[in-house]
Amino acid sequence: MLFTISGKHVTITDSIKAYAQEKTSKLPRYYDGINQVEVIVDNTHGTNKINVEIIARGEHGNVFVATDAGDDAYPCIDGAVHKLEQQLRKKKTKERDDKHHNNKGEGDGFAKPIAS
Q: What is the pLDDT of residues 57-85, one digit of tens each?
């Protein structure tokens, strides 16, 4: 899985990078199709708020985005990863349900002839 992290108006320390990589490395556990994760840490000017945005790209053009804001980068990373886990779990459940519920009707799936 490809991992990138970038900072806007903030320097990314090795510990933040390692922490974000450790947390996001568990995302394919929730949805197998994830092949790229991008973490953007932003410190907005004028305030001391940290914004963390995590973009997970998957197969077939699936893109999942989660954001969180706070005073420290570590809890923001945790919050964004948690939101992303929920999105991935929901996507996987929908795919699994669609796969197993296509043949809900009785019979073998063929139309019955109309008796006249």
A: 988 889 999 999 999 999 999 999 999 99
Q: Is residue 104 part of a domain?
A: no
Segments forming the whole domain that contains residue 78: 2-98
CA–CA gap between residue 116 and residue 75 (Å, rounded): 69
The closest of 29, 31, 43, 41 to 80, measured between CA atoms, is: 41
Closest listed residue to residue 9, CA positions, set 34, 56, 45, 55? 45
The answer to pTM > 0.90 is: no
Q: How far is it, in rounded angstroms, from Cα 80 to Cα 74?
A: 10
Q: Based on the structure, what is the number of domains in the chain?
A: 1
16 HSE (CA, 13 A, CB side): 20
